[in-house]
Structure formats: C-alpha cells, structure tokens
User: Fold this.
Amino acid sequence: MNTNEPNNFPLLERISQPAYLRQLPLEQLPEVCRELRENLIAELSDNPGHFASSLGVVELTVALHYVFNTPYDRLVWDVGHQAYPHKMLTGRRERFSTNRHFHGLRPFPSPEESEYDSFTAGHASNSISAALGMALAAKAKGENRHVVAVIGDGAMSGGLAFEGLNNAANTPNDVLIILNDNNMSIDRSVGGMKNLLHKLQINPTYNRIRYTASRKLLSWGWLDDKRKKSILRFNNSLKSLISRQQNMFEGMDIRYFGPTDGHDVIELVKTLRIIKDMSGPKLLHIHTVKGKGFEPAEHGGAVWHAPGKFNPQTGELIKSDESGMPPKFQDVFGHTLLELARANERIVGVTPAMPTGCSMNIMMDALPHRAYDVGIAEGHAVTFSAGMAKDGLQPFCNIYSSFAQRAYDNLIHDVCISRLNVVLCLDRAGLVGEDGPTHHGAFDLAYLRPIPNITVASPMDEHELRHLMYTAQLPDKGPFVIRYPRGRGSQVDWQCPMQEIPVGRGRKLKDGTDIALLTIGPLGVAAQEAIRQAEALKPGLSVAHYDMRFLKPLDERLLTEVGTRFKRIVTLEDGVRTGGFGSAVLEWLSDHGMNIPVTRLGLPDHFVEHGTLKELHALCGIDVAGIVNTLTN
Assistant:
C-alpha cells in the first residue's frame, strides 16, 4: 500500500504541521485519528518499529497538538516509542518510511531532528523531571509557555518519575502531567503503582454515580466549558469520599483529574482546554488500550510491542525462515538460567520490566516463585538483588546494557563494596541496530572497568555464555558481570555441557608470528574470518588470535606472551575505545614496560546513529572488512 498517494488520507494530507491541525473544526478530529491510525498500520506493517504503543496514543497526540501551541508549548514524551503519531503530525509523515533506517528518521524523539521534539526520550521515566525543569525555566524568563509531560507504558514505576513528582509537588510550577495508563510496559505492568491506577478506574460506586450524574448534568445543559472546571474538582472530591482514600497525587498537592477515556479525542480536547491554564502542577490520568484500533495488537500483549512485518489486513506476522539458524543470545540465556536454577535452588531471576525481552519469561513460566519482574526500576533491581544475595540467594539480574547505566551507583555502593554474589547479565551489549544511540550498549566495558571487587566477562559465542553463567553461580565468585549482544550467535548446536572457566583466563585460538589480535566478546567470530581473509590477501602475514574473555581481571599470562613475542598488537571490542578493553591492554603494557604499538578497534568517541548492525559495524570499522584493512596496513 502506497500511503503517500493523494486522497488515501485526505485530512492528513492537509496537516504538514500542527498549525494546520488546529484549523480543523473539532468534529473532524475523530476522522483525523482514524486516518492517522490507518496510516501507522500501513507504514509499520512493512517498515517495522514500535507498533502497539503508538496506536494507543493516537487520540492523545491529536488532542495535545490541537490544544497546545506546539512547538512553543513543550510536549515531553516519556518512553519514546509512543511518539510515532507525534512524528507524523509534525512534518515527518512524508519521510516516515525512513524511520529507523540508516540516515533516516530517528527511532525516538530527538531535538536534533525536529523542534517539536523538546527532549530526547529513548527509555523511561525522565519526562516529569525534564518538563518541570522546562516549566521553571519558562517562569524564570517570563514566558507564557505551557509544558506537558506524557508518561506511560509502565514508566511511572521508575524511581526518577517519583523524584520528579516529589519536586513538582513542592516547587511553584504549572506543569501538566499526562499519565497514559495502559497497564503495560513491554510486558504487562506490575507493582503497587499499577494496582493504585487500577483501583482508581474500577470503583463501582464511583463509576455508577459518575455516570448517573453526568447524564443529569448533560440534560440540564450544565456540561458546557465554563462549568466543567468546578465540576472536575467536585469529581475528585466525590472520588475520595466514595473510595475512602485520597490518591497519591492529591496527597502530594498535585491536582488530579481522571481517570478518563484516552480514546475520546473530543472529550480529551475539552478537558485539556479546561485544565491547561490552571495554576500549579496538574495530572490528567487517561486510560488507553495498547494497540488500539488493530484487534490483534489489542489482545496480543508483548508480541505487538515491536512485531516486525505483518499483514495489515489479517494481522498475520510475517516471519523469515529461521530453520537451521543459531538461537538468539537472550534465548540461550533464558534456557541456561532455567537449567542452572533447577540444579541450584539458591538461584533467582530479576529483571526490570523485560521478561520477554531478555527471555527470563522462560524461568518465570517454569519457576514463577523464583523469578521477579520489578517494573521499570533498574536501580531497585540491582539493590533488590543485593539484598537477596546478602542473605544467601544467588540472583541473576538481567538488564539491557544501556539501561543498566541508571543502576551504576547501586552496583558500586550496594553490590561491589560488600562483594555480594550478584550476577549482572547485560543484554544488548554493544551496538543494537535500529534503536540507535539511546539503546546502544556502548559504555559498559568502560564504566565497569574501574570498579573494584568485580569480574567482567564477555562470551564470544553461546557455548562461552553457558560456561560463564555456570562459572558465575559457583560459590564465592562475588559480583560477576556477563555482557552479550542482541541477536543471534554463531553456534547452531548451542546446548553444550557446561564447565567452569577460571576467572581471568583467556584462550589462544590461533597462533601467529606477526600481529597479535586480541578480542573480547562476539566480535571474535568476525575476527576469525578477518584473519583468514587478511592472510590470504597478504601472503606471508601471520596473525595470532587471542579471545581474552575477561576485561577484569585481564589474563596477565596471555598479555605477557603477547608483549614479549609480537611487534604489533590490535585490540577489538564492541564498546567505546575510550577507557574500554583496548585502553586496559595499553595500560597493562605500559605498566610492565612494554612499548609496543597497539591499534584499538572499537566504537568512536561520539554517539553512533541508528541502522542495521551490518551498516553500523561497517561505519565503525569493526566488521570483517574493517578488521582486514587494519591487519593488512
């Protein structure tokens, strides 16, 4: 389906900027929403991206741009995968087919891409803090600027969201917080916040009285815009009286409105018009359905968060033939964790809202009493794991590498100082592809290396991952980090018997006489092919290959061999060169008086854009061709 042909979406064709949306009569907004939703379905069925979250905020997005004077008024999106409708309404619809492509539209909101993207948003829970800062800046400069934070998809469970709420409650500001409550993050939301929001929606006495009263007020003509402001405040008092509790937001002196239907665009517009100029912090609680308007996605759970290609008419997922292919690293982790847990009753699993994303759902299904989804709360996940380790359990805490940056202090203060036996598994280490710089696991090697009392390892393949997981759960190993990439490995026959790897011990995979190539992690597989090609291209060249396995502690035995036998060393890593594995090798050689030329291959000192892994590895010179070029020059 060519979504750019004229008259497919006649209203959207007229909306190149939100100013044109605001020229439409209110009655036409439902049709705008219908066209926008159909356009998204058509685009994302062929050019995969974050699907269900974007469908769930169509009406909200239209209402926000209709009521507020964007981009002067600020919209701060939390969980950036909600922002596809926002992109389409803000001058990027014609280019949306390039979304997530190399040099195309960015996968998440970015001020560098559009003035309508007021703040970078790739993960979760930062919107309230950022919006509060913008609101106070506007007040300090005397600007009559509205600032709206849109938080949802489980992001309210993040600690930063609570810190923002706490500050908003005791600082003079007029920020508006939209709580998009769809009871989901990627998987279904968990925890006390989810239960609180659910109770606010389902109180039967309140909903019955509210419905009866609204019918009466409507028949009396009392639901015009002038009277709605006082009625909304009365509604909150009525809710507190009937439920016999004051909700958390009102307890913090944040004006609370809702819950209301997040798919009634006309009512959303009317409500936003009423509350937007109220002084003080405000929170509008809307209830939406993730995947709204596409029935398979409405009922498909985590599958439709980012489903890949699908048939827009039938909802059938279009899967490539995966027979004979190696499994994903995450699935090897999930199956191996369950295997280990069945043999070791001390093992428990912890993940912050990513059970299907990291495949801990495999253990959750088989041993639900020993695996915990703590919600979007990475710092808590690490300290929670530390508490269990302190009293004798063996937690495997799985966090995406870039998200683990939020738990850095927890890892140092709560795990490493006390040498607690926490195994931190960092999924999505290295470049992750189309999700771009907010999701690349570029920094873990560099930020983990300075921490005392910690072991840091990266497996070259699935067999090594299993061996390292087995090793990490043996007694008294202390804090142990295992990092591995997104996507598939190289071993089809991955179910090998597990064995202990001595901590800090690498391996020589190939001997040589001219160059020593030192690798860590899965790029070692590409290095093997690169050595073969380089030696064929340059007869007489002899390259030795060392898979170091461990960043910390380094294998000093192998480094001594390398430093005394070779005149040139090349290091290869899928992390930043600054402070990473190559830097560690250079420091060790310098400390031991070995002045040998070292070429470090890795990620550059800038944020790498989005694209396929093949494109990005080539861009950074860490693909086979880039390694060959280094070895032969």
User: Anything to note?
Assistant: The first strand starts at residue 74 and ends at 77. The chain has a mean pLDDT of 89.
